[in-house]
Write a structure and sequence with these properties.
The structure holds two protein chains of two kinds.
Chain A lengths: L1 H19 L3 H25 L7 H19 L6 H14 L3 H4 L4 H21 L9 E2 L4 E2 L2 E2 L2 H28 L1 H11 L1 H6 L4 H27 L1 E2 L6 H14 L5 H20 L4 H15 L18
Antiparallel strand pairs in A: 1-4, 2-3
Helix pairs in contact in A: 1-7, 2-7, 2-10, 2-11, 2-12, 3-4, 3-6, 3-10, 4-10, 7-10, 8-10, 11-12, 12-13
Chain B lengths: L2 E12 L2 E12 L3 E5 L6 H8 L7 E6 L2 E2 L5 H6 L2 E4 L11 H13 L11 H13 L15 H13 L5 E5 L7 H15 L5 E5 L3 H7 L2 E6 L2 E6 L1 H4 L3 H6 L7
Parallel strand pairs in B: 3-8, 3-9, 6-7, 7-8
Antiparallel strand pairs in B: 1-2, 1-4, 4-5, 9-10
Classes of the chains: A mainly alpha, B alpha/beta.
């Protein structure tokens, strides 16, 4: 644990240092990649238990709308507070549905999450107080009471997002190696046996779902802080599909791979839309096909060993 | 020996098929009992009712004085009942050691966000059980790569992780090569020796039954047709007619 924290601190400091020298467009791109990566990290938690949610976009939107509304109506503008509020709100709104969803597996789980997200999308589009289909804007955040000058905004948001991502990745790594993380993997293999050994499959799956919602809400809030705007498209099913894309690209062996995959998606999307704007999805699909063909366990399998403990 | 499990007037029907008909069974702590009978006789139904997988239509089952009717498999496991399966139910993509650690974690209800699954204490405990089953050398192998007989042993070792009072073994030697059956059962019985537990075997192999059990309960059409010492039960006329199928019966 001590070694993990020390390594994480070193990597974070290195990234914070390097990030300072990046051009603003790249700072923004990395900020979005890590914010979206947090949403996909939650998906990876679910995938380790054998289910894939196609509605994480709604969870991200809940976090994003919370940040924007709190900023607008309560004038709580702190960049460290808003993502946490976004995560907690997404978790609280999701929690009542978790026991229901925990009873379903496979395509039924995926379709239920998709259905819930589309219901949420419909509500967001029709709710005028939330800006309807236009969404709502969000002003410039502050950091620990300090107003951010123009020149510092981009890097500060990158640094804040990096810190949230680093803490989340360390937590996820500890979680994957924990007793609960191990039981989550066991559920994917054989639910019946877990129940016969005295474990509660439904409880574990419900808790994982709520955790994934927290990460998604946090990621959504961070993304909205960088974009300065949120609209119902955050919760649309195609957005949820992108989070699934990142999770599959990453695989479930390495938490770091989730951030890398999210960055790859952002890069491919940005450059593809710049150079062949009408067919960038084609490039994205081709890239995913190649990864599935040559790295079936995701990008994370490039540097993780193939010992039984690591394979999942 | 004191009473551990008691079934009183237990009945179960699946449509027109009678799987359990007015069963009365009393099992003392420490017994090694074999449940025998042809396919569909009601052995596995009885085991499934003890573990809470299916509920009887009528009757009462008590374990250590607790009425277990209506309880879930998870709750019954917590009372000290463990089982292995005819087809081993394992976590195929995980190592043998991880399988054992899952069993330990779930049984002890030690679910935690931060406590490492591979702590020294957990590994030691899991490896001690693996050693009793001669499985220590397999601990880092993936379950999916193991031969059938070894999987059977891992399945039973998993059940033993919770230090159960009552161990139910559903056809422990089925699918195991003939020459491996006795060595495998020797390993199992040695692993159970010195453990304060009661073992119930569902078994079709009469050589295994007569060699390893102290008592035999024979089923036919959901009824008990014999309940005695192996030497007596296996020579019972109905057992010879309906279970062992001996021509002179």
């Amino acid at each position: 644990m001590g070694k993990l924290l020390f390594t994480a601190e070193l990597v974070l400091l290195g990234c914070l240092g390097a990030g300072f020298f990046l051009p603003k467009w790249l700072q923004f791109m990395l900020t979005m990649a890590m914010a979206n990566g947090l949403v996909s990290l939650g998906l990876v938690i679910l995938m380790r238990g054998g289910v894939v949610a196609f509605g994480q976009g709604l969870m991200a939107a809940l976090g994003g709308y919370t940040a924007a509304l709190v900023f607008e109506h309560l004038q709580w503008t702190d960049a460290l507070l808003l993502p946490l509020l976004g995560g907690v709100t997404a978790m609280l709104i999701t929690a009542p549905f978790a026991p229901l969803l925990a009873r379903y597996r496979g395509i039924f789980f995926s379709m239920l999450t998709l259905a819930l997200s589309m219901v949420g999308y419909g509500i967001l589009v029709k709710t005028d107080s939330l800006g309807g289909s236009d969404g709502i804007n969000m002003g410039r955040v502050t950091l620990l009471g300090q107003t951010l000058p123009d020149a510092a905004v981009s890097y500060t948001l990158l640094a804040v997002t990096m810190c949230f991502a680093a803490v989340s990745l360390v937590w996820a790594k500890v979680f994957f190696a924990s007793t609960r993380g191990l039981v989550t993997r066991a559920i994917r293999d054989n639910e019946l046996r877990v129940e016969y050994m005295g474990g509660s499959v439904a409880q574990t799956m419900a808790i994982n779902f709520v955790l994934a919602a927290f990460l998604a809400g946090m990621g959504g809030a961070l993304a909205v802080m960088a974009l300065g705007h949120i609209d119902p498209n955050f919760s649309y099913w195609t957005t949820s599909g992108e989070y699934v894309f990142v999770a599959i690209l990453a695989g479930s062996q390495s938490v770091l791979a989730v951030m890398l995959s999210s960055a790859v998606l952002e890069v491919v999307r940005s450059f593809s839309s710049a150079y062949f704007p009408t067919t960038w999805q084609f490039a994205l699909g081709l890239f995913l096909l190649l990864v599935i063909r040559f790295l079936p366990h995701g990008l994370g399998s490039l540097w993780r060993s193939k010992s039984p403990q690591d394979m999942s | 020996m004191s009473g551990l499990l008691s079934a009183q007037g237990v009945q179960k029907k699946f449509g027109a098929v009678v799987a359990a008909q007015d069963l009365h069974i009393h099992i003392q702590a420490g017994e090694r009992i074999s449940l025998i009978g042809s396919n569909g006789a009601g052995k596995t139904t009885f085991v499934n009712m003890i573990t809470g997988y299916i509920q009887p239509d009528a009757g009462q089952i008590t374990l250590d004085g607790h009425n277990i009717i209506g309880m879930t498999p998870r709750d019954i496991t917590r009372l000290g009942v463990a089982r292995s399966f005819q087809i081993p139910q394992l976590y195929a993509s995980m190592s043998v050691l991880d399988n054992m650690l899952v069993a330990q974690t779930t049984h002890d209800n030690q679910l935690s966000w931060w406590r490492p699954a591979h702590s020294a204490a957990s590994r030691d405990r899991a490896e001690a059980v693996l050693e009793r089953f001669n499985l220590l050398s397999h601990r880092h192998r993936l379950v999916a790569e193991l031969p059938g007989g070894v999987r059977k042993l891992v399945d039973i070792a998993l059940a033993m992780m919770g230090s159960p009072k009552l161990l139910l073994l559903d056809e422990p030697t089925s699918g195991v090569a003939a020459e491996e059956k006795f060595p495998m059962m020797d390993t199992v019985m040695q692993a159970l020796d010195g453990q304060a537990l009661t073992a119930l075997f569902v078994e079709h192999d009469m050589d295994i039954v007569s060699r390893y059990c102290q008592r035999v309960i024979a089923f036919y059409s959901g009824r008990i047709i014999a309940d005695d010492l192996p030497s007596v039960a296996l020579t019972h006329a109905d057992v010879r007619r309906y279970v062992t199928g001996e021509p002179d019966a």
